[in-house]
Prior knowledge:
- There is one protein chain.
- By secondary structure, the chain is α+β, with helices and mostly antiparallel strands.
- The protein contains twelve helices and 13 strands.
- Strands 1, 2, 3, 4, 5, 6, 7, 12 and 13 form a nine-stranded mixed β-sheet that branches. The protein has a four-stranded antiparallel β-sheet with strand order 8-9-10-11, with helices on both faces.
- Helix 3 crosses helix 4 (144-152).
- The longest helix has 23 residues, at 349-371.
- The radius of gyration is 22 Å and the shape is globular.
Amino acid sequence: MSYVDHPRADAVSVETVALGAVPTGWDAAWNDLAARAAEPAPFMECWFLRPSILHLAPTAGTRMLAVWQGPVLIGMMPVCIAPKYGRIVIRHVQNWLHYHTFLGTPLVHAGSERVFWAAILNELDRADWAPSFLHVDGLVADGPLLTALNEERRADVVHRTERAFLKSNLSPQAYYEANIRKKKRKEVGRLQSRLRELGTINFERIAPDGPITAWIADFLDIEASGWKGRGGTALRDDPATARFFEEAIEGAFAAGRLEMLRLALDGKPIAMLVNFITAPGSFSYKIAFDEDFARYSPGVLIQLDNLKILDRPDIAWMDSCAVEDHSMINSIWAERREIVRVTVPLKGARRMLAFRICRALETASALVRKLK
Length: 372
């Protein structure tokens, strides 16, 4: 598939395939699309989504909607049929995400945002397999994709959340001093000094030709040694999840999308951080630390070293991928990013009725909570 810098004025078409049957022949066009995306969307890129599909996707009911303009792939979005909408038992179309996906932004060619949504909605309007309405989880509130969706069709925001976000023109040291209280900085210095009393500490980043397999194994070992391992929720506790993680990180490394950090004591890693680099943005994907050293706050120390991302001229921001009000990262990063879920009506009398009923119930429920 050849690529042109801007989609031509060719006819737009949508190709719908079972998620497990996405042709490998799409990969070159898929990678070209990622390089020209309207919004960074690492969780929809080929190196992440292929292992997601292989190891974590349901065996039935999931589909990939691919939008083509002539020979050019201008957008992709995986969808599924969800059996419930919140507590309401009603089948509807939803963008497909899994537990280790922290943003639902579809992959769309910059400048083709509205064309993409028009094609997707038209396809769903006509599809006999698409019930009720479209629910899209994990859109950036002020991003061009949500703006374009609202221009194309009514899209009701039904849930909002904020998470820590790093965006500043300051140097790492200046940002640290501007956003961390002097008393807290003094405490961090004390923790670093106490840790140095135990041996040599080093902050390291994996080299372009680094031993990625060994670094992945170290990360999985550290994560499994803590509360997640005790609770049976560590990545390696489920073979499919472990394989997904290994292949996704290997894929990110091969694609030049990976930055992996570690804090080592006498050569032994005691904290590790996985970042995805998708210029002009980046994503702090996973963190793990050895709980035997919890008193030294190794998670905080490695995140402070992560502030060096501010020195990169190609990176303007980093998304924490954290839950709202996360005490650790919120205490370090001052900025916030709003992520929303939206519900979009589809054409057809029964579909519109389902949309209106669900929205009325949501509105009534919100009013009751407010009155309480």
